[in-house]
Amino acid sequence: MLVLGIDPGTAICGYGLVEMQGNHLRAIDYGAVLTSPKSKPEERLLKIYNEIDALILKYKPDVMGVEELFFNRNVTTAIPVGQARGVVLLTAAKHEIELVERTPLQVKQAVVGYGRATKDQVIFMVQKLLNLPKAPHPDDVADALAVAICTTHCMNSIVWRNKL
C-alpha cells in the first residue's frame, strides 16, 4: 500500500509518500511545495494543486492522508491553510483517491505514542520509523510523513480493510 501524506499550508505544503509492505514502512519520496508570499493567492493555490496532482500521477498512491485544520488563536493563518487544504482535497477527489483525515493529536498518538508530543519528538520518530539518514526538514515535511505513517496504521485496521 502506498500512502500520500499531506500537511497543508499555503507557504509550505509538506508531502510524504510512504509504502507499507507487511509491517515494514519505507519512505518513497518527500518534500514540500513552496510558494512565494509575493505571488497572488490564486497563483499559490494553483502551484499547490499542480504539484500535488503531478505527485499523484507519478506515484499513483492508494490512499491520501491529510491533517485536519487546527488553529488556536490565529484565524488569519487558518484561512489560507484552509484554502490549501481545500485544494488538496479537490485533488484527491479528482483522482478518486480514498481520503483519511486525522487531527494533529491523532497523528502524534500514532507516530510517537503520545498525543501531546513535541515537534522534535515527532521528527525523531519519523526518522526512526522510516529509517531516514537524516531528519526531514522543514517541519512540514516531517508532519506530512507522520500523517502518512498514521494513515498506514488506519488503513491497516480491519474496519478500513473491510471498507475497501
Top keywords for this entry?
164 residues, alpha/beta, 6 helices
Order of helices and strands: EEEHEHEHHHH
Supply Rg. 15 Å
Number of strands: 5
On the 0-100 scale, what is the average pLDDT?
92
Total helices: the number is 6
Distance between the termini: 12 Å
State the low-pLDDT regions, or none: none
Query: What general form does the structure show?
Result: globular
- Provide the structure class: alpha/beta
| Lateral strand order in the biggest sheet | 3-2-1-4-5
How helical, in percent, are the residues? 40-55%
Characterize the largest beta sheet: strand count, sense, and whether it forms a barrel: 5 strands, mixed
Quaternary form: single chain
The percentage of residues in β strands lies in 15-25%
Description:
- By secondary structure, the chain is of the alpha/beta class.
- It is built from 6 helices and 5 strands; from the N terminus they run E-E-E-H-E-H-E-H-H-H-H.
- It has helices at residues 41-59, 75-94, 104-112, 119-129, 139-155, 158-163, and strands spanning 2-7, 12-21, 24-34, 63-67, 98-102.
- A 5-stranded mixed beta sheet has the order 3-2-1-4-5.
- Helix 1 packs parallel to helix 2 and helix 4 crosses helix 5 (139-155).
- The protein starts with a strand and ends with a helix.
